[in-house]
Amino acid sequence: MFYVLRDATGQISSLHRDPVVGAQTLAEDHPEVRQFMGLDSEQQQFASLDASFLRVLEDLIDALIRRNVLCITDLPMEAQLKLFDRKHFREGVSAHALNLFNPGGGRSPESNTVIAEWKDLSE
Q: Based on the domain organization, do 20 and 53 belong to the same domain?
C-alpha cells in the first residue's frame, strides 16, 4: 500500500510508504503507481525489447563472421562502423566492470597453478 499526494491537475506528485496528511492510499500494483514509478511505460518496454533484440543481432552477425558465412566487408560501410563502435563500447564497458568472480583480470587462480607431478587418482 502506498500513500500518494496529487498536484493541482490530479497527477501523482509524490509517493510514500508511510501515512502522510492529505494522502490517498493506492495499491502497489495500481496503474497510476506503476506509471509514476516508470514500470509500465510502453516506450520503456519497447526500448528494452529493442536493446535485447539488437544484442541478439550483434551476436548473430559475430557468429556468421566467425564461421566465414559472412564477411564484415560485405556490409555497407555505415553498418560496419556502427558494429565496430558498439563492439568497442561493449568491450570498454566490460573492461571497467566490477569482476567479482574473476578478480585476476581474465585468469582464474587455477590457471596460475603448475602441477609438478601428475597422479592418476582413479587407481
A: no
